[in-house]
Automatic annotation (TrEMBL):
Coiled coil spans: none
Species assigned in the record: Ralstonia psammae
Gene3D superfamilies listed in its UniProt record: Medium-chain alcohol dehydrogenases, catalytic domain, NAD(P)-binding Rossmann-like Domain
Catalytic class of the enzyme: oxidoreductase
Enzyme Commission number(s) from the entry: 1.6.5.5
Domain Enoyl reductase (ER), first and last residues per copy: 11-324
Protein's name according to its UniProt entry: Quinone oxidoreductase 1
GO molecular function, a single term: quinone reductase (NADPH) activity
UniProt superkingdom: Bacteria
The keyword NADP is annotated on this UniProt entry: yes
Alphabetical list of CDD domains matching this protein: QOR2 (cd05286)
InterPro entries referenced in this protein's UniProt entry, alphabetically: ADH-like_C (IPR013149), ADH-like_N (IPR013154), ER (IPR020843), GroES-like_sf (IPR011032), NAD(P)-bd_dom_sf (IPR036291), QOR-like (IPR047618), Quin_OxRdtase/zeta-crystal_CS (IPR002364)
Amino acid sequence: MATAVRFHETGGPEVLRCETVEVGQPGPGQVRLRHEAVGLNFADTYFRSGLYPVPRPAGMGVEAAGIVEAVGDGVANVAVGDRVTYTGFINTLGAYSTERLIPAAPLIKLPAAIACETAAAMTMRGLTSAYLLRRIYAFAKGDTILLHAAAGGVGLIVSQWAKLLGLTVIGTVSSETKADIARAHGCDHVINYAHEDVAKRVRELTGGVGVNVVFDSVGKATFEASLDSLKRRGLMVCVGTASGPIPPFNPQLLAMKGSLYLTRPALADYIADPAEKAELAGELFDHVAAGRIKIEINQRYALQDAVQAHRDMEARKTTGSSVFVI
């Protein structure tokens, strides 16, 4: 028997339940995986709240790392005893568990230098950072980015990776403690949006020009300031809606603010091709294994504390990455 966090109705953190479940044997194309650590991501709240609708009762979480304990017929990419990590969407939902069945296709073998706990803290965040910096825009040394939530899990990885590419990073945070964390991980400039005008400060820092790209995971609360921070023909990348969905707007607004570009990418479309996923994961793992990118695990929880973990995350009490330790 395994322990799993599930929800039977949508709502706040209180709908999460820790339950005992039977795992069974893997079917064709599946493996039975024993988790060592599970990733906690803001996107998990979208399933719980119903923003991402799924049949219920449902498991929670889409990212974890552990050991393959059994394989079903037709599985060739992993074997019993392999250390693996994964992230995804509907096909990996149910990660908040001690053990589970999962399709073998999303699994990524871990190099010896990377622990399961580190992998669970970085697979989604790291692959997201990888496609943002290596696929979304043809960055050149000296380009400038505006990075919202710079002290968060994705923010800390993007900041470090951006410095490896020679970019200037302007990060936004909500407190001075988070500002110190962002600076320590590569932000050249930090804006505390609790008492600073983000767009105005960006213009001051860029000599009135604006930034090449904005990475905005906040959404509703920062959308207008993000657009106003871009240079002419700059790119707005909407990567999340932590403050709520972006309200409908007339695309003419993009023309009025400098012929701006806007995209709302999803990780699933950048790891759908196995070869591309392997390339992005390989680059990420190489940086982490070599110490060029450090993964900060600043919160650790037990599965039984899932309700509190979600409350902490939604209250913006967390920094870096959070994991459930099994």
